[in-house]
Write a structure and sequence with these properties.
The protein is of the alpha/beta class and 298 residues long. Helix content is 40%, strand content 15%. β6 (184-189), α9 and β7 form a beta-alpha-beta unit. It is globular, with a radius of gyration of 19 Å. It comes from Microbacterium istanbulense.
C-alpha cells in the first residue's frame, strides 16, 4: 500500500488555480445570473467563504454596482430590504447557510455559488452557479475560494489576464524559504484585499497551527503593531499606506509585500502555508479539529 503524502490534495488544488480562474472568467452565462447592477444585495458565507464575500462586496460597491453587504451566515440581518442574497459555500451543506436560505425562502431570492453541485443547497436556492471543477478534497480550501472570487471579479468587468499570469509566475517560481519560518504573522490589506488578509491568516492557522492575525492596514497602527518584533512578519496584500513599511521595520519585524495582484499573492501564501505544515509534520488535507463542512446537530 502506498503511504499518503501529507498535503497532496492541497498541493494539487492550489497549483491548479490559474486554470480554474481562467475557466471561471469565461463563464459569462453564469456571471449573468448574479444580481444585476443597482441591486441591493448581501453576500454570505462561513469561514473562507465569508472572507471572499467581504472582498466581493467591496469590489462591487467600488465598481458602482450597488449596495453590497457581507456577512457570516449566522449573523446576517434578516430584516433588511435586500433584492437578493448571494450564498457562497464550497460544500453546500453548511448548517448556517442552509438555515439562512430556508429562513428567507419566498421573500428574498438566493443565488447559490457552490462547489458540490449535488449538495442540498442546489435544491433550495432560487438560482445556482456551480463550480464543480474547483471543488476540493483537502479540508483546507484554496482553489474554490479564489475561483469564486475570480468569477465575481469577472462579473464586474475585470480582466483577469494579469492576475492569472501573476499566479502562474508565483507557482512556476521558487519562494524564499524564510517566509515560512517566522514566529508570528500579521496579514494586512486595504479595500478588497482586507478579505484576502483575513483568509491568509485563516489558511496559516488551519494548515500549520500557526499564530496569525489579520487587520486593515490602516488599523494595524492603532494597536496591533505592538505585536511586531524581530522574527515576526507583517505581510501586506496589495498597496500599503504610506510609511507603514518603515514603521514595521523599525520594530525589527519583517515587512513583506509583492508587486502582484493580491489574489495571486494569496496563492503564494497557500504554498508557504502548505510547506510550513509539512515541515511541522502536519497534514493540511486533514487538519486538527476541522472537517470539510460544519454540520451542526439539530
Amino acid at each position: 500500500m502506498t503511504e499518503a503524502i501529507a498535503g497532496a490534495h492541497m498541493r494539487e488544488e492550489l497549483y491548479s488555480q490559474p486554470q480554474t480562474w481562467a475557466r471561471a472568467a469565461e463563464m459569462r452565462a453564469e456571471q449573468a445570473l448574479l444580481p444585476a447592477r443597482g441591486a441591493r444585495i448581501a453576500v454570505v458565507g462561513c469561514g473562507t467563504s465569508w472572507f471572499m464575500a467581504q472582498s466581493f462586496a467591496t469590489l462591487r460597491e467600488q465598481g458602482g454596482f450597488g449596495v453590497t453587504d457581507a456577512f457570516t451566515a449566522s449573523e446576517t440581518p434578516l430584516d433588511r430590504d435586500y433584492d437578493a442574497i448571494v450564498a457562497l459555500t464550497r460544500s453546500g451543506t453548511t448548517t448556517e447557510v442552509l438555515e439562512l436560505v430556508d429562513e428567507v425562502k419566498g421573500r428574498i431570492p438566493v443565488v447559490a455559488v457552490v462547489g458540490d453541485d449535488t449538495s442540498p443547497l442546489v435544491n433550495t436556492a432560487d438560482t445556482v452557479i456551480a463550480l464543480p471543477f474547483a471543488d476540493e478534497k483537502s479540508v483546507v480550501q484554496t482553489r474554490f475560494a479564489t475561483t469564486a472570487l475570480a468569477l465575481f471579479r469577472a462579473s464586474l468587468g475585470e480582466d483577469l489576464t494579469a492576475a492569472i499570469a501573476d499566479a502562474q509566475a508565483v507557482l512556476d517560481g521558487t519562494d524564499d524559504v524564510t517566509l515560512g519560518e517566522a514566529e508570528q504573522y500579521s496579514f494586512l490589506g486595504m479595500g478588497w484585499s482586507i478579505g484576502l488578509a483575513h483568509e491568509a491568516a485563516l489558511k496559516m492557522r488551519e494548515s500549520s497551527q500557526s499564530w496569525t492575525e489579520s487587520y486593515s492596514s490602516m488599523e494595524y497602527r492603532h494597536g496591533p503593531i505592538a505585536i511586531a518584533s524581530p522574527g515576526r512578519i507583517s505581510w501586506q496584500f496589495g498597496a500599503a499606506p504610506e510609511g507603514l513599511q518603515a514603521q514595521v521595520e523599525a520594530t525589527g519585524a519583517r515587512f513583506v509585500q509583492h508587486a502582484i495582484d493580491p489574489m495571486a499573492d494569496l496563492v503564494r501564501l497557500h504554498r508557504v502555508a502548505l510547506d510550513r505544515a509539512v515541515a511541522r509534520g502536519l497534514d493540511p488535507d486533514q487538519p486538527r479539529n476541522l472537517t470539510r463542512s460544519v454540520i451542526l446537530d439539530a
